[in-house]
Each structure stands twice: as C-alpha cells, then as structure tokens.
From TrEMBL:
InterPro entries: CoaB-like_sf, CoaBC, DNA/pantothenate-metab_flavo_C. It comes from Nitrincola nitratireducens. Residues 6-214 form the DNA/pantothenate metabolism flavoprotein C-terminal domain. Signal peptide: none annotated. Pfam families: DFP. One of its GO terms (biological process) is pantothenate catabolic process. GO terms for molecular function: FMN binding; phosphopantothenate--cysteine ligase activity; phosphopantothenoylcysteine decarboxylase activity. This is DNA/pantothenate metabolism flavoprotein.
Length: 221
C-alpha cells in the first residue's frame, strides 16, 4: 500500500445508513453498518489525504486522523456534504441513503389505533451524490451501487444518470458481502474501464480502491 498516494488531497466520504423519523421514537432505516465507508476513510487517511467522514448512526469509532461529522437523516447528510465539499478533490458516497422519508413527522408518539393497517406516506429525499456531482466546482465523484440483480447494468446506468466519474458496483444479494458484513467484493466502473476486485476484507478492499482511484485525480499534489 502506497502511503503517499493521496498526499495533499481533500476527501469527503459518506458512510452508514440514514434514519428518517416517523415520530419521536420510530424511524425508517436500513442495514448499513458503516464498515465500508469507515474503511475507505481509514485507507484515504493512511494514504495521506485530509479526510472528512460524514456518518449516519453506526457503532464504529472514528478512524485516526479523520474529521467525523455525525448525522441522522438524508437531509442532514446533504447539508453536511454541501458544507464540507468546498475545496474538496474527491467525494465518495458509501452511505446507504434512504430514498424516501415520511412526508410528515409526528411531534408526539403515534398511538396504536383500532384499524388493522396504517399508511405512512413517503416523499422523495434529495439525492446527495447527484447534487454534489452537479456542482459547478465538482470534485471527482464516486458512488456505490447496491444492487440485488442485474448489478452491472444498473450500476452503469446509475453512474451515467447521477453524472459520477466512477461507480463501485456492490452485489448485496450474496451472503457474506455487502451490508453489515466484514468482507466485500465489488466491480469498479468508469467511462472506460470495469475492474473487478475479488472478495476480501472491507479494510483490504478499501486500500485497493484508494490505489485504483488515485491515478484518476487531476492533481496529485
Ligand atoms: O455500511 P456497510 O454495512 O459496510 O455496507 C456497505 C454498503 C453495502 C452500504 C456500501 O458498500 C454501498 O453499496 N453503499 C451504497 C448503498 C446504496 O444505498 O446504494 P444506492 O444504489 O441506493 O445509491 C447509489 C449511490 O447514490 C450511493 O453512492 C449512495 O450513497 C448515493 N445516494 C443514494 C440515494 C440518495 N438519496 N442520495 C445519495 O447520495
């Protein structure tokens, strides 16, 4: 591993799930543990980058030499991302951001009614990475695509639609990789290349990803 490969680069990484409140005690979320994003933050810092990690609620401690900002909802994560992204060279979206949130958040705890069912109307959340990629001063922008089927074709389509420089396709249907596991296996997709990285620990994989990303950066200062 090259300990200088990101020297002087500013990197912003999102990690973990978001929580979308229903009422003061309930939320909608997902199984992201934050392990992949935290491993990337650690690898980027080890490679000499100045790293800001924007994290949803997870049970991990901040890696050494990483500035961590804790957030809850997708809207909070977007605010933190827009705040952190100025002068940043690379943005990596490893977070599993909720695509939808409840339309309204009850101020009081919802009570159980007599009805056998209840509806919660959801509205679309902002797309954080697409917002970053649309900035006039956009950093080199890298997303993940968590898919259960047609992984590569959905990932290619997502990269184009969100105007990402690179997307990391993650098959989350295979046991032992993806959400909440210690290992992962991905395919890295750019406009010209598709590189598949075999299953290994998220820590090891993060280091391989950093080494793959580095040559794409315009100025290795
Ligand atoms: O956290 P772990 O347990 O270690 O698991 C890692 C992981 C499986 C969560 C991670 O490797 C991963 O694949 N993260 C992306 C998960 C996801 O929600 O993917 P997506 O295909 O829904 O989103 C595509 C991209 O858009 C992602 O970079 C995502 O961060 C981003 N996005 C999505 C929705 C939204 N509203 N805003 C976004 O920025």
């Amino acid at each position: 591993f090259d300990y200088d490969v990101l020297n002087g680069q500013r990197v912003v990484i999102t990690a973990g799930p978001t929580r979308e409140a229903i009422d003061p005690v309930r939320f909608i979320s997902n199984h992201s543990s934050g392990k992949m994003g935290y491993a990337l933050a650690e690898a980027a810092a080890d490679a000499g980058a100045e790293v800001t990690l924007i994290s949803g609620p997870v049970n991990l401690s901040a890696p050494a030499h990483v500035k961590r900002i804790m957030v809850e909802s997708a809207q909070d994560m977007l605010d933190a991302a827009l705040h952190s992204v100025e002068n940043c060279d690379v943005f990596i979206g490893a977070a599993a951001v909720a695509d939808y949130r409840p339309e309204s958040v009850s101020t009081n705890k919802l009570k159980k009614g007599k009805e056998a069912s209840m509806d919660i109307r959801l509205v679309k959340n902002p797309d954080i990475i697409a917002t970053i990629a649309a900035l006039p001063n956009k950093p080199f922008t890298i997303g993940f695509a968590a898919e259960t089927n047609d992984v590569l074709s959905y990932a290619r389509e997502k990269r184009l639609r969100k105007q990402l420089d690179m997307i990391i396709a993650n098959d989350v249907s295979i046991a032992g990789i993806g959400f909440n596991s210690d290992e992962n296996q991905v395919t890295l997709i750019t406009s010209t290349d598709e590189i598949s990285l075999p299953q290994t620990s998220k820590r090891q994989l993060a280091r391989q990803l950093i080494e793959q990303i580095a040559p794409h950066l315009p100025t290795t200062r």
